[in-house]
Automatic annotation (TrEMBL):
This is Acetyl-coenzyme A synthetase. CDD domains: ACS. Catalyzes the conversion of acetate into acetyl-CoA (AcCoA), an essential intermediate at the junction of anabolic and catabolic pathways. AcsA undergoes a two-step reaction. In the first half reaction, AcsA combines acetate with ATP to form acetyl-adenylate (AcAMP) intermediate. In the second half reaction, it can then transfer the acetyl group from AcAMP to the sulfhydryl group of CoA, forming the product AcCoA. GO terms for cellular component: cytosol. Acetylated. Deacetylation by the SIR2-homolog deacetylase activates the enzyme. CoA binds at R188, G189, S190, K191, T307, N331, S519, R580.
Length: 644
């Protein structure tokens, strides 16, 4: 079954045949500047660039199209109106509760709404270069806020609405953002998320010392919220229709900051710039989905993650596409909701995460087959490896063997899709992302950095820069160099393990660092550990990932308690609650094991390899435990695991 090739019986003519892929790929690596300057013409520039890439990985400095100027809001919105496509539908809003009315905006209407949002931002004092934190539900105004920042040349920093006030505070502080856009409440599966109250709590955090100059609050559910005089403003009171021109930006001016987890320390504010990111998202969207005018695209991600940035806010709109913006969740009001939305809006493309597919698969086929779904033309996945069983179900049941699947591998730092098959240009292999996108030069290396050739398995690096690559970590370029370019000098290291087969297909095996992927959400084990040890009763904590049927990986925590404390069900619940409060519900531990010690070497280093194996219930291959300071601890840990 592994390495099985899946071909489609009925292939439509696409924008990329197998021959074209080979030809374009060759050109993209032989003459990257020529290739990318040509792709850059997908965008409308104020000053078209004459320079392609100018980059080095040692020391690290990356620029693309540096002498070009443009505005991405103009490209995503105004440009289509000016070209006579103002009547085309841009956004179709599908609310959390299917019984409440949705909303649909043409490009002309979208332009009007973006101008109103930009004017409201201006009214609270936002100017070019300012950082604006966006903490929003999945409603149209979230996308508007991002585009309005781009219009003014302000840098958006979207924080996922599921993060706790503590996590939000760290992200506001991290980029010294003095402006916030939020809503009264969000809705997810009929549950209310108190967004405005969370912002208030974040700003009241004792170590929060960046003063907030202004906050815009979008009225969504209409619940009562506390407004601080002089600081908080209702969006609808400040929105106005005055002309608000797009600010011409340098290609290398930052477009946004997005916080993401790494193997150490606090989340990093990854910086993407205007020109390269714009070209990358526009080009990848066009080739990977093979979108045609009039078709309806739907990416189920949240704008709080990179997928929502690249394939909701930017990629589709830069291509003038029509797309669904969905506020809800796959299982509300029932497990057929995705397919109801597909039928209601005649969705042609569905782009979602393996965790959602696995969760829906578990509920049985009837929820799917009872809906029509004949509009579907292409299916996509992103965020984590997809197991072949889930792939098959997606292909056979959801897509009725008609729809190609693109399994797209990429990262917050890469800006857009890096490895994928292209619809109809490549055969698919369930579980394999496929081939490198244009300009991408993957390399597999062993732990010592030796390059591995042919069919092999190793650590995935990328040897050459591409336009969509992140440029730095906000305010900490050294950390950027250290994190991505120091493990294997002169290469970008992805943190992922990967196999390459004899056909040159890439199979991502998952993270090889201390990052775990829970339901497609990236999480640093160090973040969960630091949340746990901030609890008064906890002495030490070590967190590892372990295989989880639905989530891909679950969060397994080993905890030692302070002298005099006893592990109990009550404390277990208390610690779970504590982690949720510190980070958010997505970081809820799946298992907490109380232990009298952590396996450490004599020099005090925690041997995570052993903890991972025990969490996986894999005791046969614990490896050498003789270097442990207390080898007898291993048996106690195993016993504790079995009792959980
Ligand atoms: C994982 C999400 C296997 C990978 C766009 C990567 C995947 C991390 C895939 C980035 C895929 C993403 N197959 N693994 N198709 N897509 N990953 O930054 O481990 O939230 O390093 O970006 O997700 O997660 P991030």
């Amino acid at each position: 079954m592994l390495n099985a090739v899946q071909r489609l019986d009925t292939a439509r003519e696409t924008n990329c045949t197998p021959e074209m892929y080979e030809q374009l790929y060759r050109r993209s690596v032989e003459d990257p500047d020529g290739f990318w300057l040509e792709q850059a013409k997908r965008l409308e520039w104020v000053t078209p660039p004459t320079k392609g890439g100018d980059w080095s990985y040692d020391p690290v400095g990356i620029e693309w199209f540096a002498d070009g100027t443009l505005n991405l809001c103009h490209n995503a919105v105004d440009r289509h109106v000016e070209a006579g496509r103002g009547d085309a539908t841009a956004l179709i809003f599908e609310p959390d509760d299917p019984a409440t009315p949705g909303r649909s905006l043409t490009y002309a209407e979208l332009r009007g709404e973006v101008v109103r949002m930009a004017n409201a931002l201006k009214a609270i004092g936002v100017k070019r270069g300012d950082r604006v934190t966006i903490y929003m539900p999945m409603i149209v105004e979230g996308v508007l806020a991002m585009l309005a920042c781009a219009r003014l040349g302000a840098i958006h920093s979207v924080v996922f609405g599921g993060f706790s006030p503590e996590a939000l505070a760290g992200r506001i502080e991290g980029c010294a953002s003095r402006f916030v856009v939020t809503a009264d409440e969000g809705l997810r599966g009929s549950k209310r998320v108190p967004l405005k109250a969370n912002v208030d709590a974040a700003l009241a955090e004792p170590d929060h010392d960046t003063p907030i100059d202004g906050m815009l609050v979008v009225r969504h559910t209409g619940t009562e919220v506390t407004m601080t005089e002089g600081r908080d403003h209702w969006y609808h009171e400040l929105a106005s229709d005055e002309e608000c021109p797009c600010e011409p930006m340098g290609a290398e001016d930052p477009l946004f900051i997005l916080y993401t987890s790494g193997s150490t320390g606090k989340p990093k504010g990854v910086v993407h710039t205007t020109g390269g990111y714009g070209v990358w998202t526009a080009t990848t969207f066009s080739y990977v989905f093979d979108y045609r005018p009039g078709e309806v695209f739907w990416c189920t991600a949240d704008i709080g993650w990179i997928t929502g940035h690249s394939y909701i806010a930017y990629g589709p709109l830069l291509n003038g596409a029509t797309q669904v913006v969905f506020e809800g969740v796959p299982n509300y009001p029932d497990h057929g909701r995705f397919w109801d939305v597909v039928d209601k809006h005649q969705v042609n493309f569905l782009y979602t995460a393996p965790t959602a597919i696995r969760a829906l698969m578990r509920e049985g086929d009837a929820f799917v087959t009872s809906r029509n779904r004949s509009s579907l033309r292409l299916l996509g996945t992103v965020g984590e490896p997809i197991n072949p069983e889930a792939w098959r179900w997606y292909f056979d049941v959801v897509g009725e063997k008609r729809c190609p699947i693109v399994d797209t591998w990429w990262q917050t730092e890469t800006g857009g899709v890096m490895i994928t098959t292209l619809p109809n240009a490549h055969d698919m292999k369930p579980g394999s992302a496929g081939k490198p996108f244009f300009g991408i030069r993957p390399q597999l290396v062993d732990n010592d950095g030796a390059v591995l050739e042919g069919a092999t398995e190793g650590n995935l690096c990328i040897t050459h820069s591409w336009p969509g690559q992140a440029r730095t970590v906000y305010g900490d370029h050294e950390r950027f160099e250290q994190t991505y370019f120091s493990t294997y000098k002169g290469k970008y290291f992805t943190g992922d393990g990967c196999k390459r087969d004899e056909d040159g297909y890439y199979w991502i095996t998952g993270r090889v660092d201390d990052v775990i992927n829970v339901s497609g959400h990236r999480m640093g084990t160090a973040e969960v550990e630091s949340a746990l040890v901030s609890h008064a009763k906890v002495s030490e904590a070590a967190v590892v990932g372990y295989p989880h049927d639905i989530k891909g990986q679950g969060i397994y925590c080993y905890v030692t308690l302070n002298a005099g404390e006893e592990g109990s069900d009550a404390l277990y619940a208390e610690l779970r609650g504590h982690v949720r409060k510190e980070i958010g519900p997505i970081a809820s531990p799946d298992h907490i094991q109380f232990t009298d010690g952590l396996p450490k070497t004599r020099s005090g280093k925690i041997m995570r390899r052993i903890l991972r194996k025990i969490a996986e219930n894999d005791y046969g291959s614990l490896g050498d435990t003789s270097t442990l300071a207390d080898p007898s601890l291993v048996d106690r840990l195993i016993e504790g695991r079995q009792n959980r």
